[in-house]
Amino acid sequence: MNFYSEALKIKDRLIHWRREFHMYPELGYEEKRTSAIIKKKLEENGIEYVETAHTGICALIKGNGDKTVGIRADMDALPLMDNKNCNYASKVEGKMHACGHDAHTAILMGAALVLNNFKHSLNGNVKLFFEPAEETTGGAKIMIEEGVLENPHVDAIIGLHVDENIPCGKVGIKRGVVNAASNPFTIKILGKGAHGARPQDSVDPIYIASSIVMNLQSIISRELSPVEPAVITIGTIHGGTAQNIIPEEVTISGIIRTMKAEHREYVVKRFKDIIEGITDSLRGKCIVQVDESYPCLYNDESMYNLFINTSLKLLKEEKVIELLNPSMGVESFAYFSNERPSVFYYLGVRNEEKGITNPAHSSLFDIDEDSLSLGVALHCQLVQSYLDTE
Fold this sequence. Notes:
Elements: H1 3-9, H2 11-23, H3 32-44, E1 48-52, E2 56-61, E3 68-74, H4 101-117, E4 125-131, H5 139-145, E5 156-167, E6 171-174, E7 176-179, E8 181-190, E9 194-195, H6 205-223, E10 230-239, E11 245-246, E12 249-258, H7 261-281, E13 285-290, E14 297-299, H8 301-311, E15 320-323, H9 333-337, E16 342-350, H10 371-388
Parallel strand pairs: 3-4, 3-5, 5-16, 6-15
Antiparallel strand pairs: 1-2, 2-4, 6-16, 7-14, 8-12, 8-13, 9-11, 10-12
Helix pairs in contact: 1-10, 2-4, 4-10, 6-7, 8-10
């Protein structure tokens, strides 16, 4: 089966869908319009589905046999102005598909159409996961809790993300750990307010907060190996109302990113130890909240090898880039990769001749839409290859 030629046949529809989503972006758990378009196309092609995770969708294409592979796409946009000068720029004030989820959704819709046309030749089933709220809390977690990986049981999962650093026509993949885990945090330092001229009457929470900010970095620089990445980012510090007043409290927020489960546990523990120790030694009190957010995203070794072998059926060897470094960013596909053997790859969308070079999460982000057909073909080829393996 030449899936690439089949994907090229629907190229115009892929571009139309992608631009439709791009013009009318929706934030996490608001994707009602997007979901309605997807459900209409599924119904038109006789593909059964259920609603999940508020605005998410889980669809099923039944082939021959019990083996089942899933494909996931995220649907939500970002709270960002679209400053592109093109006829498909966002028409919704303050909202934009600046991370390519419009393309991901269009690609999965295209893969659904192609695979459904050839379902009688598939040695198993295909589940389609349209995930909401990837940019915030991750709809994947709710989808899994609501049972999308069962009935029928999903054996493996495929996902992709567009990448503006990889030229259109090429793909990238990372062995092992692909994305970091994250732990957002909030620290409230409680002291005693006083006049700025009489610091002896105070317990200065700004001084305590400053000591905490500096000492937290010792976890990364002196307690973890320098060849194993981890990051503690302080994003906000709020406290005080005037130059001559020592305030009563300061609030700090930020995020921890780690690449290993054991590092995640260790850093969180030491994080709390250091904050509590400094605060106590400087006569203050603290309230520390560390949230469990996205886990690490792992590419299963067998699925990684499947991708390499399968992609070379569609692309020349130099078009398949083996990435050396993981991303410190997070990705909610990680929830799926922690439940089933998975592969997550990057689809090149950069085209310098067309001026498509702007970074994701920026107001000028765009993609080379020639990439859409390749994404569909790779999804379909991976599905067939996986279902054909013993």
